[in-house]
Amino acid sequence: MPYVNAYITADDKKNIEGIGKPSMPPRRNSTAGRSRLEDVARHARVSTMTVARVLREPHKVAPDTRERVSAALDATGYTPDLVARALVSKRSGVVGAIVPVLSNSLIADVMQGMSEGLARDQRQLMVGASGFSAANEETLVRSFLSRRVDALYLTGTSHTPATVQLLRAAGIPVVEGGNMTDDPIDMVAGVSNIDAAASVVTYLLKRYGPEIAYAGASPVDNDRVRDRHLGFRRAIRDAGVRLPPECEIQTEMAMASGREVIDKILALPKRPRALFCSSDVIAAGALLECQRRGIDVPGTLAIAGYDDLDFSRELVPALTSVRIPRYEIGMRAAELIHQALSGKRPKRPVQALDFELVIRDSA
Fold it and tell me: pLDDT confidence of 68, banded at 50, 70, 90?
């Protein structure tokens, strides 16, 4: 191997020694691995108290100082230690919400309203999905309470006894949303699913006569569906109508269930003239199945749903449904939580919102 005689200058040596060495990041707390309030204050050349004020009450800080601190926050990558703050203030700034599923646009509208309502107090929303299971809801409640949430939103008014006991013992604001009850855990914001369902069934009875059927999902751990079925029964009772049990069909909460519903209706000794479904999803499935079979809607069978989901007005024929103020429910829940956390017991802890019967071509 040939020998190479090389001369290395002082500058070459300095460059060689630097090869492979990473550039050093800004100084941080070595134990926590994150920037401290002191790091931000040093970078912005202000006191830690000023940094804290920018984080909590920015409107009380001069604009130029606020901009300098904001730039320092970005440069150091500082994030507040909310756990430590919660231990001192007994407030985490987080509100928990437990919903059945995350894929439903109805639930998304409620959560959007709630998120925007909470934002004015700089509170954040943490969401968990129970899968329509009261037992799973109880598990989520325990998890949220262990994370010291400031308040909780629960979908519906039916819970396990342990959930109710946990929340009443926790002493934090609780809002049950989407339905009504005479005995809330703490506060409630929603609509009466019984009254709303009864209104659309009463309309169908007056327009199409006593031959009517019901199709709904399982009421287990779902008080909203349970009450819609009760509303159906109340309306037919008030109208003096008696129906055979076969006219009340339990199915899955899925559009594909429409085929099963129409199969059962066609098998009835006396076919109904109208069908009320506990959700637009089931009603849309039934309507599409009627089209596949050449059954005229509403000429042979009128169909109405519940929830007035976005696709309902786009169907042909467009679906008659019950419109629920979903976004408003979320906003009301946030307002109730705001009042409770401000130390003021809401004057109206039980808030019943209005629903609307939207009549379209399917009925």
Answer: very high
| Greatest extent of the chain over all pairs of C-alpha atoms, in Å | 110
Cis peptide before 317 (omega within 30 of 0): yes
Beta strands in 19-173, from DSSP E residues, in sequence order: 94-99, 124-129, 151-155
CA distance 334 to 331: 5
**CATH 3.40.50.2300 residue window(s) in the chain:** 89-191+327-353, 193-323
Per-residue pLDDT of 19-56, as tens digits, reads 333 333 444 443 445 788 888 899 989 998 998 888 87
Task: Indicate the class that CATH gives domain 193-323.
Answer: alpha beta
Q: How are strands ordered across the β-sheet holding 350-352?
A: 124-129, 94-99, 151-155, 174-177, 187-190, 350-352
Secondary structure of residue 321 in the 3-state scheme: strand
Q: What radius of gyration, in Å, describes the C-alpha atoms of the chain? A: 29
CB atoms within 10 A of CB 230: 16
pTM summary value: 0.78
Phi, psi of 165 (to 5 degrees): -65, -45
Dihedral sign, Cα of residue 102, residue 103, residue 108, residue 110: negative
* Predicted pLDDT at 345: 83
* Top CATH class, 89-191+327-353: alpha beta
CATH 3.40.50.1100 fits 10-80, yes or no: no
Q: What are the two backbone dihedrals, phi and then psi, of residue 2, each rounded to the nearest 5 degrees?
A: -65, 150
Determine how β-strand 174-177 pairs with β-strand 187-190: parallel
CA distances to 182, 199, 205, 210 from 238, in Å: 22, 12, 11, 12
